[in-house]
Amino acid sequence: MGSQEYIKQGGQQLVAAILGIGTAVPPYVLPQSSFPDYYFDISNSNHLLDLKAKFADICEKTMIDKRHVHMSDEFLRSNPSVAAYNSPSINNLTDVTVPQLGAAAARLAIADWGRPACEITHLVMCTTVSGCMPGADFEVVKLLGLPLTTKRCMMYHIGCHGGGTALRLAKDLAENNPGGRVLVVCSEVVSMVFRGPCESHMGNLVGQALFGDAAGAVVVGADPVEANGERTLFEMVSAWQDIIPETEEMVVAKLREEGLVYNLHRDVAARVAASMESLVKKAMVEKDWNEEVFWLVHPGGRDILDRVVLTLGLRDDKVAVCREVMRQHGNTLSSCVIMAMEEMRRRSAERGLSTAGEGLEWGLLFGFGPGLTVETILLRAPPCNQAQAV
Ligand SMILES: CC(=O)CC(=O)SCCNC(=O)CCNC(=O)[C@H](O)C(C)(C)COP(=O)(O)OP(=O)(O)OC[C@H]1O[C@@H](n2cnc3c(N)ncnc32)[C@H](O)[C@@H]1OP(=O)(O)O
């Protein structure tokens, strides 16, 4: 259903809504300006002078200020294989920290929703890292004291579009289970993708300048009950998933003894941007993209945002929220789009705007990931009392 069909059917169809949002980051901070020195030191690579200079250049061009991580200096120094380029280094840091960080974001989302955790009926959990049975979803149920009857769905190794995938699943679950309340948790801890530099693996080096840890959570329900204090921040009107043809080599990651080993192709940003116009038109043809639409675009890298803005002819302020998330956190994989959603809601409330979507009614959320896969969600932000929205 596009925005025009929604208007035609008078908003009568049951549409999933985001009723609460929460985010969390771990305690350690890596300032981007000093990261090249730290990274080459911790990986014993200071002899690679030219590569270090190139890495410093890439770090500067990311426009990232800092990233939050669960890997303390002590952890990295006592587990040197994690920081080596090519040593067996699957580690157990994520077993505990992925559910803990996810639960921290979920507690805030549930508090924001304003209802007790025992009213959660479904859990959709997503992480690119880790791999446990029972899974991170099971741990989140324990940490939050959710009902043991919570219907869980655990998604591992989806990648950066996983946030969009989780939201799309939550939409279907909420719309097909009247009264259901779906908790979505995306939690990323990048210790399995962290590794030292290698002169012949530039895609790795780019990723080391980008990725950071964060969790984002939302509560989704299709029939909010105002009398219970529930209010809609964003409706998820429609959702699409698309593979961009002939781009499967652009972002590739494989689980190996060394952890999750990935490559990022030089043309990722160009190929993502080239697909955008047709994806936007599929979701909404009739709107003015600058004046009438808010944009939550996965901040996968500075070049991705630059090219999306250029291709769609957007004003740069339309992706200011996405750039800010990137500046403060880097690319936090699946949790990025929820981080951006929360930042937009917070800024809209601060500015006293009439909707959580920068005062606008219609918006688009885009998640990009391996495949290349694009998750597109058409959002509608109803008028709300911003004093109650945060
Ligand atoms: C699909 C998804 O979106 C899912 C994800 O989130 S996965 C992560 C996706 N993100 C990316 O792939 C990163 C996108 N790229 C960027 O944001 C920018 O290219 C950047 C910030 C990394 C660098 O900025 P830039 O303006 O392109 O700088 P530029 O001077 O052209 O490049 C710096 C150097 O890095 C090299 N480089 C950049 N990206 C590279 C890549 N993916 N592979 C190999 N080399 C790369 C360039 O060739 C250049 O090297 P030389 O100086 O030897 O020519």
TrEMBL record:
Instruction: Report the superkingdom from the record.
Output: Eukaryota
Per UniProt, what is one Pfam family of this protein? Chal_sti_synt_C
Keyword check for Transferase: yes
The record's InterPro entries line, in alphabetical order, gives: Chalcone/stilbene_synt_C (IPR012328), Chalcone/stilbene_synt_N (IPR001099), Polyketide_synthase_type-III (IPR011141), Thiolase-like (IPR016039)
Which residues are in the Chalcone/stilbene synthase N-terminal domain?
A: 15-224
* Chalcone/stilbene synthase C-terminal domain span: 235-381
Q: Which GO terms describe its biological process?
A: pollen wall assembly; polyketide biosynthetic process
Q: Which SUPFAM superfamilies match?
A: Thiolase-like (SSF53901)
In terms of PANTHER family, this protein maps to: HYDROXYMETHYLGLUTARYL-COA SYNTHASE, OS04G0103900 PROTEIN
**Protein family membership:** Belongs to the thiolase-like superfamily. Chalcone/stilbene synthases family.
The entry's protein name is Chalcone synthase
